[in-house]
Specification:
About 30% of the residues are buried. Helix 1 crosses helix 9 and helix 6 runs parallel beside helix 14. The protein contains 15 helices and no strands.
């Protein structure tokens, strides 16, 4: 005779699978919320980004260059976007010496996202303490690295000389449209493009004070090939609030998108922490903590653990093409106590 099916076991398996799916869903929408947060700051920044780059005399001060890099990256919430803008300025004739402090500032500005993520966990004092400490690890590393490298660069000019040597034999062919694969964006774009779409060319044109985009009035994507009579030409929700819809203004659109992104961010973080605590019992949690935070269990190789963690961090950042997303995902894990600060730092 067949043994009766253990309904309790099946129920437990179903509950666990549901929790895992919910955790992945929270992680997915958390990453989407970071994209919306970035877009909202870009909309709110608007043409003001170009004003930061307009005074060439002011940019000769390396401290000003660092702070402009910080401000632009905070506005667009993407160091990749801000550095590509700076690269565009250099290709348009700006000196490399001026651009180097801005690149350093961009690396500082990208760490602001972690602070925002950590602040969402302020409801639990212990989790907030760990998450905020983890976020500040990233901040302090970027700040100290930038300050040291900018000082050395001002005294010696080694970065300008080194990069000049690297490209002195490069051909005259100007290839600026080559893009690295972005696997994460390929996953999130089907959802994010339903809500909002931005014209990145307009953003870069404003930042570089290009005459071609001087008369552009909006950063929202317009002029798509799906025009319906009496409606916007692009089929995303915020198009109905833009110039082709009721046109409530860029500032209001930015504020609405910012509110949506922050609500999504907080909700997904709270959900991730709750689900993690529900999935991981006390015993399982202690095992994971001991495995992740332990050194390499081979005698004499324990000192390599930090370098292995650095390699994992580098690979993950290459895969997701965003240091902000990876470190922002690491922050709630540190808040939940799964990753120690000693392991999160490398």
């Amino acid at each position: 005779m067949k043994s009766p099916v253990n309904t309790e076991v099946l129920k437990e398996i179903a509950v666990t699978v549901t929790k895992l799916v919910s955790l992945l869903a929270c992680l997915y929408f958390f990453i989407c919320s970071l994209s919306f947060l970035s877009d909202s700051f870009r909309i709110l920044g608007g043409k003001n980004i170009g004003a930061l780059f307009s005074d060439s005399e002011l940019l000769k001060n390396p401290v000003v260059g660092v702070m402009i890099g910080v401000l632009v990256t905070v506005l667009v919430q993407s160091s990749s976007t801000s550095t590509s803008i700076i690269v565009g300025l250099v290709s348009a004739g700006a000196p490399v010496k001026t651009a180097i402090p801005m690149i350093m500032g961009a690396n500082i500005g990208t760490s602001v996202t972690n602070i925002i993520v950590a602040l969402t966990q302020a409801g639990d004092r212990e989790q907030f303490r760990k998450a905020f400490a983890c976020a500040n690890v990233h901040d302090m590393f970027n700040w100290l690295s930038a300050f040291i490298l900018v000082i050395i660069e001002c005294l010696t000019g080694y970065l300008e000389k080194l990069t000049g040597k690297l490209v002195e034999n490069v051909g005259a062919t100007n290839v600026t449209d080559v893009k690295s694969p972005d696997f994460l964006k390929a996953l999130t774009k089907p959802f994010t493009k339903v809500l909002v779409q931005l014209d990145k060319d307009v953003l870069k044109g404003w930042a570089q004070n290009s005459l071609e985009y001087e008369n552009a009035t909006t950063i929202l994507r317009t002029g798509c090939h799906q025009h319906a009579p009496g409606g916007p030409s692009c089929k995303y929700l915020f198009a109905h609030l833009g110039p082709e819809g009721v046109n409530i203004g860029e500032s209001y659109i930015g504020v609405i998108l910012l509110a949506i992104s922050l609500c999504m961010l907080c909700g997904c973080l709270i959900g991730m922490v709750k689900i993690l605590n529900a999935i991981l019992g006390t015993k399982v949690k202690s095992v994971i903590e001991n495995v992740i935070n332990a050194d390499i269990p081979i005698r004499g190789l324990g000192w390599l653990t930090g370098y292995l963690a650095m390699l994992v961090g580098a690979i993950m950042t290459i895969l997701v093409q965003s240091s902000s997303v990876f470190t922002s995902t690491l922050t709630p894990l540190a808040g939940a106590g799964l990753v120690s600060l000693e392991r999160a730092y490398p």
